[in-house]
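dumping this here so i dont lose it
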């Protein structure tokens, strides 16, 4: 039998060890742990955080971050992933906005407790799973979104199956079966865009859970199609409507060269593509303009972002929920202008219902720029037309926090501390998370995942 894509992938990642990974990729994954766990804890007492915990409350050996009790690995993966992604403040990847941290961190840490894996194996699985997810994002480009699916959900299930399998030390044939099984578990439509409902929040947690289960089935000998990626009825045909797929983006240099080092961390609690627009708005707000004197606001955008961020205008200019506001280009621009920030406080129901914020959002219009580089690069543009005829205009060439302007570990720890404090937790929990992440990625023999049950308590 010819070597299929999943066979080649499995051969490339099976047998790797933590000491073969360079410091940069380990550091990015340490940052991912800090960011993800902090966000998960901060969202525990939200309405969706409480409801998902109520729905998945079965006991076991695994940790729901910030909860001083034990849960099943499935429950921990689902709850941690859902809460971590709940405010859309988690890390992402340019080229295809997949959120790897909130899939891979919950999946790997749950697997470590379920199977009593050492830190060096957990760290290895975290790096490999993250790398595969980012590379699959490059393969998919914008086609998964265009087909109506959430890339984090469907690519995440496949990648979590790989990451957990590598952490467990499975053989290539078992990894191939695990990925083949995950192809039939992957799911996640983007109809949440219609009303801002919470299913998007669930997607990474469900993907993490799928990875755990698919890996268990592959390890047990349950077979999955080896041609799951490239087959006539395979993953990319089903979820991306792609007939010609460049798998070199997944396979070339896998296990030796790391695109994970380009992970992007968000400075603002909203959709990835809105981030540079918020930065533009904040810079304009620094001019001290009278917001009431703004006559019109124009944003040049990439065509691929319109259906998620800018249209239909009547919904995006007056988002029905605080969650929907995170995927509203008009509201995010208004938040930057009015609040000079777009952290968690800008996306409370009170903030998104503010009359002045909505009045500003109602003035925002978008124009498709045919030369916009999305999804290869995320840029920003805001142009203010004042009532007296003056014009103020700002552009951003890239995503702050992304590959071209990365956040430092210190900045991510500070972000984590602010998120914990917003939710009523102790800011010192961010330092605890820094220490935990460093131990994990160095393969420390003293690491205890259960220590995360009291983060920020």
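and the seq i came up w/
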């Amino acid at each position: 039998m010819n070597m299929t894509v999943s066979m080649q992938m499995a051969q490339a990642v099976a047998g790797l060890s933590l000491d073969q990974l360079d410091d940069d990729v380990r550091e990015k994954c340490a940052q991912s742990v800090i960011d993800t766990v902090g966000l998960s804890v901060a969202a525990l007492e939200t309405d969706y955080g409480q409801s998902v915990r109520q729905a998945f409350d079965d006991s076991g050996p695994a940790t729901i971050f910030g909860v001083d009790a034990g849960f099943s690995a499935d429950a921990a993966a689902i709850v941690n992933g859902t809460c971590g992604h709940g405010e859309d403040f988690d890390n992402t990847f340019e080229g295809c906005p997949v959120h790897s941290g909130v899939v891979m961190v919950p999946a790997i840490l749950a697997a470590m407790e379920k199977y009593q894996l050492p830190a060096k194996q957990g760290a290895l699985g975290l790096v490999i799973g993250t790398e595969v997810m980012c590379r699959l994002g490059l393969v998919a480009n914008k086609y998964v979104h265009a087909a109506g699916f959430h890339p984090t959900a469907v690519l995440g299930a496949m990648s979590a199956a790989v990451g957990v399998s590598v952490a467990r030390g499975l053989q290539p044939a078992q990894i191939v079966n695990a990925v083949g099984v995950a192809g039939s578990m992957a799911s996640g439509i983007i109809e949440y865009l219609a009303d801002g409902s919470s299913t998007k929040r669930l997607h990474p947690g469900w993907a993490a859970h799928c990875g755990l289960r698919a890996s268990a089935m592959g390890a047990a000998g349950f077979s999955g199609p080896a041609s799951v990626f490239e087959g006539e009825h395979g993953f990319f045909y089903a979820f991306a409507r792609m007939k010609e797929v460049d798998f070199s983006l997944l396979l070339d240099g896998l296990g030796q060269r790391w695109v994970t080092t380009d992970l992007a961390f968000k400075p603002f609690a909203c959709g990835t593509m809105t981030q540079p627009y918020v930065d533009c708005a904040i810079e304009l707000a620094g001019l001290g303009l009278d917001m009431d004197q703004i006559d019109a606001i124009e944003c040049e955008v990439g065509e691929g972002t319109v259906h998620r961020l800018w249209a239909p205008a009547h919904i995006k200019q007056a988002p029905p929920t605080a969650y929907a506001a995170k995927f509203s280009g008009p509201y995010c621009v208004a938040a930057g202008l009015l609040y000079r920030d777009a952290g968690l406080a800008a996306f409370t129901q009170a903030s998104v219902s503010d009359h002045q914020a909505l009045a500003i959002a109602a003035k925002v219009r978008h124009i498709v720029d045919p030369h916009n580089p999305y999804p290869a690069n995320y840029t920003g543009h805001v142009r203010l037309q004042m009532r007296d005829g003056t014009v103020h205009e700002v552009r951003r060439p890239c995503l702050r926090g992304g590959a071209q302007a990365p956040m430092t570990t210190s900045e991510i720890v500070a972000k984590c501390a602010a998120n914990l404090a917003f939710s009523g937790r102790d800011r010192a929990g961010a330092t605890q998370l820094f220490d935990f992440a460093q131990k994990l990625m160095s393969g420390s023999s003293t690491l205890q995942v259960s220590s995360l049950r009291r983060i920020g308590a």
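Residues 5-266+406-454 form a domain with the 2-methylcitrate dehydratase PrpD fold (CATH 1.10.4100.10).
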